[in-house]
Amino acid sequence: MLPEPTQRLAPEARSLWRLEGAGWSAGLAVAAMVASVQLGQWDGRPGWLPVLIWIAVPVGAVVLVGVVPELRWRRWRWEVRETEIDIRHGVWAVRRTLVPMARVQHVDTESGLLQQAFELATVSFHTAAGKTEIPQLRRQQAEDARLRIAQLARTGGDV
Amino acid sequence: MSEPRRLHPAGIAVAGLEDLRGALVPALAIALLSGGLDSLAAAVARVGAFALIGTVVAAVSGYVRWANTWYSVGDGAVRLRSGIFQKRERTIPLDRLQSIDESQGPVQRLFGVSQVRLQAAGSGEGAEIKLGALSGADIAALRAAAAGAAPAAAVAPEPGGPARRLGTPMLLLAGITSAQFGFVLPVMAAAGQAVDELAEPLVGWVSEGGAEHSAGAIFAAAAVVVGAAWLVAFLGTLIAFAGHTVERRGDRLRIVRGLLVRRESTIPVDRVQGVLLVDGLARQPLGMTQLRLETAGYADERVHERTLFPLLPRSEVERLMAELLPELSPPRVELRRPPQRALRRYLLRPAALPALAAVVALAAGAGAVWAAAAAALALAAAAHGALRFHAAGWSVRDRLLVVRGRRVARWTLVARAGSVDIRGTTQDPLQRRARLASLRFAIASRRRAEVPHVDVADAAPALAALAAR
Question: I want to staple B108 with a disulfide (CB 3.0 to 4.6 A). Which of A91, B20, B104, B241 is the partner?
């Protein structure tokens, strides 16, 4: 009844997310180090707690860098149709979102520092109810999507 | 009316009072605390002196502001120029003007003038011009000047058209039931004595150095606090909604209410994205509900400004809506519900965390009372979940979306299908296995509505039914 969206994000999105994941893992490692120092001063600490912390860090890193970016990229789908924008994403909980073209008020593309390094951009379109995004598209693709949405929104009926 | 004019001289008092009100709390604080908490007489004298000085200062500042405020209508726009050092000018093009509202606070009533609010499409500060005091003749001239370019907004409110007024008994009932926790008061007072022994270990840690305060005393103190809050809610409701009247005039709704400050607002029906029926905890058992308007562009205003009708029996909603707002009259249709097998999720998911806490507390040897408290919390969460399950429902019919749910109070949203900006589903792997999904909607007023755990087979048609034609 409702066709699934087909377009994917840029493949480079995975690399960007891996880099972000590496950053988070580094933060996790620092937190673990601070925690173990604090724990060292707690005499009654259970023996398994430091072991748990020092297992959590590499496991977290593997998950954040190796597993999540690939899964996220595989699950992300989007499509711009004449009457609506269709988005489907999510690793654990899958979210399907539909936005009628007639309700779109304006469209932007944004590109943060990290995204610029990978030549990626995010398309965000706004309705009265709020903002919806399609992240990590190749810069030209993002621009094309923005133009297409802007054109369809103008002719898609009254807002 | 092209040349800039000043406001009515009563504007001095209006501006002065505004300044005084702004400085009141800090000034009082300084007055009371500056001399240390010495004798009462000295404190009263200090407060009196500060009040006198404050009034004089406010009068001067009010005059200065009034003398530097100019408004004009011409060249297709309304302009307000104000400011002493920093000159500000706000312009609203007449073709974007949506309404000219009049209201009267006690000061305006004293001088026989009105405050005028000119509102344009859009939200935020730049979409409104407020003129603190204008005489009736000036307002008529303003409307006449705007009539050419903004005929709909310029029309002065005329009597006629279907109307509904909140009667005094209803107003009192609304006040009594307005505090959601109002019914807890008598329960707490009685419980204070009865649970003295049971609660002793739980509240024992609150007392300082030896159980000086019995649990009963603590409950009594809490009851006093709750009682005071209930009183504030009661009085606030009376003051806000006394004389509440709704009128339908052509394509606008005119709402008038208020005891001390008479508030009047005109809302174009096109701006109304939906209607929200709220069955407050104390109201639902009485078969009563409250009607609120969901509007786009009014999001920054307080809840009171968006109340269509503060309290009425559910059985009368259909009639009121048919008279005043037929565009959003709730359709007579059975709501679709989540399937029976979803009940388990409604019960277990919120109860999971407290139940886990109870188990952990027992395992860590924290004492039976803490575990019992956590278990009681888990039971309460499950009961709440059961109520939420019974409230959950939705339907799409006649270009109207109806969603019902419960957070604390039960709510029902009736929205135009065309105002549904965002719709979708959420499904986690556990839901996928049970063939369930959660429905999500967001309408232009930024209101979100969700129906958790519906059958997957029902989700797709719900989304498709809202697709643009």
Answer: B104
The CA distances from residue A30 to A18, A33, A37, A69, in Å, are 18, 5, 11, 22
What is the C-alpha to C-alpha distance for residues B126 and B91, in angstroms, rounded to an integer?
8
Q: How many CB pairs under 8 A join A and B?
A: 75
Residue with tokens 């066709």: A3
pLDDT per residue as tens digits for the range B110-120: 899 988 888 87
Tell me whether residues B421 and A157 touch, CB distance under 8 A: no
Beta strands in B229-287 (DSSP E): 245-249, 252-257, 263-268, 272-279
Q: What is the pLDDT of residues B116-140, one digit of tens each?
A: 888 876 655 667 888 999 998 998 8
Ranges A40-49, A78-87, B373-382, B386-395: which has the least confidence? A40-49
Contacts of B422 in chain A (CB under 8 A): 97-99, 127, 129-130, 132
A 103-132 residues with CB < 8 A to B? 103, 127-130, 132
Does pTM surpass 0.90? no
Q: Is the distance from CB of B451 to CB of B394 less than 8 angstroms? A: yes
What residue in A sits closest to B469 (Cα-Cα)? A83
**Secondary structure of residue A103 in the 3-state scheme:** helix
Task: Please report, for residues B230, B266, B291, B294, B311, the alpha-carbon distance to residue B320 in angstroms, rounded to integers and kept in the order given.
Answer: 29, 18, 10, 17, 12
Q: How close, in Å, is residue B272 to chain A by CA atoms?
A: 13
CA distance B428 to A91: 9
